Amino acid sequence: MNVSRYPVAIAGAGPAGSALALALHALGVEALLLDRPLAQPFRIGESATPDVAGLLSRLGAGHALDGQPGYHGNLSLWGSETPRLDHFLYRGHGHGWHLDRAGFDQALRQEAVARGVAVLGESGIDAIEPADGGWRLRVRGLGEAEARVVVDAGGRRSPLAARLGIPRCRLDRLQALACHVDCPGELSGYSLVESAPYGWGDAAALPDGRALATLMTDQDLARAQGLEHPADFLAAWRATRLLSERLPPPPRIDAVHAFAAHSGCVSRAAGPGWICVGDALMGLDPLTSSGIACALGDALAAAPAIAAMLDGDLAPARAYAKRADDCFRRYLAERRRHYRQENRWPERPFWQRRAFAPAALAVPA
Question: Which of 151, 184, 252, 351 has a CA positioned 20 to 30 A from the CA of residue 358?
Fold first, then answer.
């Protein structure tokens, strides 16, 4: 039986996986990129911070932002009764982008294909076991394969790390409940963010002329308030001030879509013959708008560590794990600081849970 052999197999072709394939290609390392099917066709929009352009430039993929509308800052109602504008220019940065995530992800995958990376669609790793010098894999749509290094780029469930017995720490049960609606012109270019007793909501314009309205709360609180039901979702939206003024809720919506948005990380970032990147490494609160930047940064940091693994040197992988630990510590401190700025509902469960959130959590090498 023919067995396909690759130096590296990457499970997941989102931004982190595709960017890693590009970074490895630049180092002369061949990789198999496995593009798993989406669980649901609805795609939640995402904001990309100004530093994303520089990261894409390092990958030679700056064109992935072509046609994506500018994101200039946030208008927020948080910790105060007065809205506040946080414009990126105030920080000395350029603008960010409100992404069509499906189009952005596709642009990165297509760039990988154009450079000769082997990309297998509708695929994933169904089984994995150690083999001489690496791993033996059962790959959907390919059959048996071997890889010397495997990469988990499969999202917040860390599916490949779970198969390897690497546990994941989950800090909360944050859930995003979202719908698409027609977008008024005055929303273009900014994200709206507004806190509420049960959590917070946000809204942003999308490249296709619609807007994405999202309510964020913990999974149990969403069930208790019925936010997965269109009528209750609309009622909570109408009860907001900033969101309902700038993006008036429609009379009805057909469905509310739920997405995991919890914070967490794998207990180990890398080990002999494996490594995690993107959300599979650490899942960040959407409040930070840093998921895309972190995914691209992980890819650029992981590529030389993987190249060194192939040469038998694990020291760069340990440095990569130390980087992940430092990044997650900074994220937790910033997350706690931001949530503590809102103290109008200290007795409500959502805010009580954030008030006592940890300030640090190590990701051991």
Answer: 151
DSSP code, position 102: H
Give residue-wise pLDDT tens across range 318-351.
Answer: 999 999 999 999 999 999 999 999 999 999 999 9
Residues 284 and 278: their CA atoms lie apart, in Å, by 10
Q: What is the pTM of this model?
A: 0.93
3-state secondary structure of 1: coil
- For residue 39, pLDDT over 70 is answered with no
Q: Nearest-CA neighbor of 280 among 269, 288, 272, 271?
A: 269
How, if at all, do strands 257-260 and 210-218 pair?
A: unpaired
Residue 93 predicted with pLDDT over 60: yes
- Kindly report the backbone phi and psi dihedral angles of residue 178, in degrees, each rounded to the nearest multiple of 5, phi listed first: -140, 160
Using CA atoms, how far apart are residues 31 and 10, in angstroms rounded to an integer? 7
Bridge partner list, 4: 145
Structure tokens at 175: 């859930």
Rounded (to 5) percent helix, strand, coil in the chain: 35, 30, 35
Q: Which residues of 166-187 are buried (b: 16+ CB within 10 A; e: fewer)?
A: bebeebbbbbbbbbbbebeeeb
Whether residue 45 contacts residue 211, with contact meaning beta carbons closer than 8 Å, is answered with no
The backbone torsions φ and ψ at residue 85, rounded to the nearest 5 degrees and listed phi first, read -100, 125
Classify residue 78 by its DSSP letter: -
Q: Hey, is 214 helix, strand or coil?
A: strand
**Which ranges of the chain does DSSP label H, i.e. alpha helix?**
15-26, 52-59, 101-114, 159-163, 219-225, 230-238, 242-246, 291-310, 315-340, 349-355
Residue 362 scores a pLDDT above 70:
no
Instruction: Pull the structure tokens for residue 313.
Output: 């040197």
The half-sphere exposure of 362 on its side-chain side, counting CA atoms within 13 A, is 3
Are the beta carbons of 12 and 153 closer than 8 angstroms? yes
Place of tokens 């309205």: 213
